[in-house]
Structure formats: C-alpha cells, structure tokens
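In the previous lecture we treated proteins in isolation. Real proteins rarely work alone, and many bind small molecules. This record shows how such a complex is specified: first the sequence, then the SMILES for flavin-adenine dinucleotide.
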Amino acid sequence: MEKFYTNTLVIGAGVVGLAIAKEISAKNRETIILEKEAKIGQITSSRNSGVIHAGIYYQSNSLKSKFCVEGNKLLYDYAKKFNVPFINTKKIIVATDESQMEKIFEIKKQATANGVEGLDILNQKQVNQLEPLIKSSGGLHVPSTGIIDQHSLMQSYLGEFENNGGMVSYNSIVKRISMHNKKFEIEVIDNEKNKTKIICDYLINAAGIFASDIANNIDGLDKQYVPNTYLAKGNYFSLNKKLPINHLIYPVPEKISLGIHLTLEIDKSIKFGPDAEWVDDPYDYSVNENLKSKFCHSINKYLPDISEEMLSPSYAGIRPITSKEDRVKRDFMISTVENHKIENLFNLYGIESPGLTSSLAIANYVTERL
Ligand SMILES: Cc1cc2nc3c(=O)[nH]c(=O)nc-3n(C[C@H](O)[C@H](O)[C@H](O)COP(=O)(O)OP(=O)(O)OC[C@H]3O[C@@H](n4cnc5c(N)ncnc54)[C@H](O)[C@@H]3O)c2cc1C
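The predicted 3D structure, ligand included, written as tokens:
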C-alpha cells in the first residue's frame, strides 16, 4: 500500500474544510484535503440559501453568534477583495400579525446583545415603503444580511489554497483512522478500490453531515465524545416569475428552522425555503411536489399573491444536527484535545447554518489552536 506524509490533513472540501485548509496552508504548513466526491462543495455547501447571515437569533456567547457576527464582516471583506459575487440585499423579518411584534422586539434585543449593528424596528407603513408587495404588521430591518455566490466563494478558497501549495485529493474516501507515535494514519480508498495510507501530525475532520461517522472510525477516540448527527432536510421551491422584491424576507422563526423565507439569487430570481424534515438518507435530495401547498400557505402569510402554480420544486440540502432540541439552543461543536483528550485532532460537528457565513471565522479559530 502506498504511503504519503503531510503535516496537516483536512477531511472534506466543503466551504468550511476549504476555508480552514486555505488558512492553515497560508502559515506554510503542508496541507492536503481528502474529498470523497469528484469536485469541491458537492454536499451541503452547494445546497443552502447562500445567505450571509447577520447573527441575530443565536444565544449570546454561543459559537454560532461569535462566528456569525465575525464571519459576516470577514466574508464581505473577502468577497470585495477577491471579486466573489455578492449583494448586500439586507433583510426584513416580518410580523405576519400584530401579536408577532412582541417576538420582533425580542429578536432585536438578542441580536443587539450579539453585537449586530444597525437594526431598526419598522411599522407596517415602513415595510410597505421598502417592499410594496409584502404584507405585514411591521418588522425588523437587518442591514448586514446579504447573499453570496457560494460556488465562486469555494472556487476562490480553493484557488488560495492551491496557491499556498495545498492539494485536494478527490474521489478519496476516508475509512479507518489509527494513531501511532503521536501521528494519525488515515486509510483512504479511491473509486477503483485502491488503498492508500496518509500519515499526518494534525487532523481536521470537516466532513459535515458525515463528521460523526468519521469520528466513530478513529481508533482510540472514546465514543462518549462523539455526538450523534441527525439529519434535517430543507426543501426549496423556486418562483417561476420575477417580482420587484429587493430584500430577503423572513417570517418569525420556527422551532427547528428559520421558517419558509424568501431569498434571492444573485440574478434576483426568487426562491422559497428551506423547510425542515427529519430524514435518515444523507443522499436523498428529491423535493416532493406535494409540499407545494404547505409552502404556499406559509408564503401567503407575507406574500399573498403567490399561488401553487407559480412554484416549482428546486433543490434540497441536509443540515447536520447534533441535538434535536430547540433551534436556538443548538450550537456548533469544535471538539479539540480539551474535549476528547487526543492532541492535534479537531472534529467539527453540527456545522449547519450559519456555517457558510462563519467559514472564515471558523478557519481562524481552528488555525489559531493548531
Ligand atoms: C438547507 C440549508 C440551508 C443553509 N443556508 C445557509 C445560509 O443561507 N447561510 C449560511 O451561512 N449557512 C447556511 N447553511 C449551512 C451551510 O451550508 C453549512 O454550514 C456549510 O455548507 C457546511 O460546510 P462543511 O464544509 O462543513 O460541510 P459540507 O459542505 O457537507 O462538506 C463536507 C465534505 O466532506 C466530504 N466527506 C464526507 N465524508 C467523507 C469521507 N469519508 N471521506 C472524504 N470526504 C468526505 C463530503 O463529500 C463533503 O464534500 C445551510 C445549510 C442547509 C442544509
């Protein structure tokens, strides 16, 4: 069996793995990414809303609030510097009836505590002036929300990584991982069932929805430190016509997800979603046409003129969830020696939304701790 050595090995070429590898390789460390797919970003990183979140909903002092608020600024700066297409669309969280205004005030309070700036409470007339098609009793204006072309972003991270001398090995499935003399030995299998062994000093597991599976295959890592990863699918429907809407429009959030919201693509076309549905199959990305009526019912609360015929099933993405508890209580988990007692091993669990927004902040956090 062929053997290779590298200083640092990252498992997963999604937006988070790429951001981390880019940052580490910039510190002159020899870094390889192993990716089981034939291209970068084929799993969750290309199946999301592409929203640059502001960081408003998360609990104070959580990793999500820290990374999202930091990551938001870092991402805008990065996109400007490296010409990644983005639009600072801004967003309005709308109260669909008067009773939800209380919730809007609570969201503003939490967001302000998290360090989100420039928030404004809007009355019905002000929402109407900004977005005449939207029906509401008022809302919260969030100026730091935007959208980004996630494919161009990942391509840019990859370019940086390769410029730093890094390499991605595609079609490379990580199997077992063992430890010898303080080094990790990773067994890798390719499409033709050829086996290779990679030896490294530092190992970063950024395998997204498969992160717990990878961790469970590390010999010597006590299973008590590996959380379950539950899968919550989010479906999207696209709108078959263009409408003059410029902000992202979000309802007041629900228990598992942020509610079926309206987001824009870079070309200003409109999509709705994601909803949230617990699933077992990590590869089932089909969107059930029958969800249309549920979507339409939710959308009509803030956009009354939409009918089912205007919606087409679009795509779906799957969230890695480490606890089925309330959405607000769930946090990212970056498990290090302090948690699992193995030096130089980083396991990233539950990197659901706002993982894209947080990618550069997560990369800095991991790199500082290497
Ligand atoms: C429906 C939905 C909407 C979202 N919307 C937003 C949003 O608007 N804004 C935002 O900030 N975030 C959003 N997110 C979250 C964001 O998409 C994720 O946090 C981010 O993409 C996670 O990136 P990742 O690199 O950790 O995971 P992934 O993109 O899943 O990458 C992990 C990689 O690891 C590889 N891998 C797995 N197992 C192995 C193995 N054994 N061997 C080799 N390679 C392996 C996979 O093939 C994959 O390429 C959303 C997520 C979902 C599901």
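Summary for your notes: The chain is about 25% helix and 30% strand. The chain has a mean pLDDT of 96.
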